[in-house]
């Protein structure tokens, strides 16, 4: 094993990205130096592949994978043409997702279901705009998802009216859905939101999977994050680093913290202070 090499998995929003959703020139330079020295820097985000495209182009990390959909897809992009890529996916089989959708569709206020090639919407206008990423990397389909579903699904967002929540919860507890995870975003203005994926599809699983294929020992795994969906990789990494601007709901769980915020190049600042060997 190449014990002198590291893999660093890093969340995007409020971690690598500044508040204005940009990456500084300094952070870009330092990350590229880390990778040129033989290490691996992996953006590991809940965003879909198409929602990460600007940052893939910004960093220009040749031969570096990205982990999308909270670990449901690991993509090896061609940075000269992001429509070209290889991928490893941990997806819900089409027939199982269709069965689930049919089971609960009368309870849904809205739904978005994603594969790498397509995004399916039911009542798109009811969904929060910040979760919708549409560009020329994906095809958009609207209407009855169970009718025109063509793909296995990486992740889906279900919105359920609060009055129907108990019925919804009973339906998703069926034995046939034991392989699925239903992560609750809570209730806002009478609407409960759930993110659905395979149980195995987590940021932590993506980190461990990539460390194995790159032959990186566990002691050389580092992760950065700020929120609930980062906890699996923060726990699974040898060194899980919480941003000092982490969400109040998770910051008390941290052992390692950045010295600076995401607006102050907090990730590379921590690496420079704690792991200067990355540049040697």
Kindly describe this structure.
By secondary structure, this protein is of the alpha/beta class. It folds into 2 domains: 7-89 and 201-279, 3-Layer(aba) Sandwich (Rossmann fold); 94-198, 2-Layer Sandwich (Hypothetical Protein, Haloacid Dehalogenase-like Hydrolase, Chain: A, domain 2), CATH 3.30.1240.10. Helices cover 28% and strands 26% of the residues. It is built from 9 helices and 14 strands. It has helices at 12-16, 25-36, 49-59, 94-104, 145-148, 165-172, 203-213, 231-236, 266-274; strands at residues 7-10, 40-44, 66-68, 73-77, 85-89, 108-114, 118-122, 139-142, 155-161, 180-188, 191-198, 221-225, 239-242, 256-257. The longest helix is centred in the N-terminal third of the chain and has 12 residues, at 25-36. The mean pLDDT is 96.
**CATH architecture of the largest domain, please?**
3-Layer(aba) Sandwich
Give start-end ranges of low-pLDDT stretches: none
Number of strands: 14
Number of separate domains: 2
Largest beta-sheet details: 8 strands, mixed
């Amino acid at each position: 094993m190449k014990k002198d090499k590291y893999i660093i998995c890093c969340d995007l929003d409020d971690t690598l990205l500044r508040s204005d959703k940009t990456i500084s020139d300094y952070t870009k330079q330092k990350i590229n130096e880390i990778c040129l020295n033989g290490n691996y820097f992996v953006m590991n985000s809940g965003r879909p592949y198409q929602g990460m495209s600007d940052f893939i182009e910004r960093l220009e990390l040749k031969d570096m994978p990205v982990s999308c959909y909270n670990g449901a897809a690991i993509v090896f992009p061609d940075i000269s043409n992001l429509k070209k890529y290889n991928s490893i996916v941990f997806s819900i089989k089409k027939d199982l997702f269709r069965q689930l959708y049919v089971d609960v569709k009368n309870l849904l206020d809205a739904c978005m279901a994603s594969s790498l090639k397509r995004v399916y919407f039911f009542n798109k206008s009811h969904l929060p705009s910040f979760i919708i990423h549409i560009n020329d990397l994906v095809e958009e389909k609207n209407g009855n998802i169970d009718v025109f579903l063509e793909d296995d699904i990486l992740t889906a967002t279900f919105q359920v009216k609060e009055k129907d929540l108990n019925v919804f919860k009973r339906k998703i507890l069926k034995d046939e859905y034991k392989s699925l995870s239903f992560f609750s975003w809570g209730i806002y203005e009478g609407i409960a939101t759930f993110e659905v994926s395979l149980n195995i599809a987590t940021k932590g699983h993506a980190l461990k999977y990539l460390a194995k294929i790159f032959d990186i020992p566990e002691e050389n795994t580092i992760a950065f994050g700020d929120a609930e969906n980062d906890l699996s990789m923060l726990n699974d990494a040898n060194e899980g680093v919480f941003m000092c601007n982490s969400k109040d709901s998770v910051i008390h769980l941290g052992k390692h913290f950045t010295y600076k915020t995401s607006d102050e190049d907090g990730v590379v600042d921590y690496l420079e202070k704690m792991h200067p060997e990355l540049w040697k």
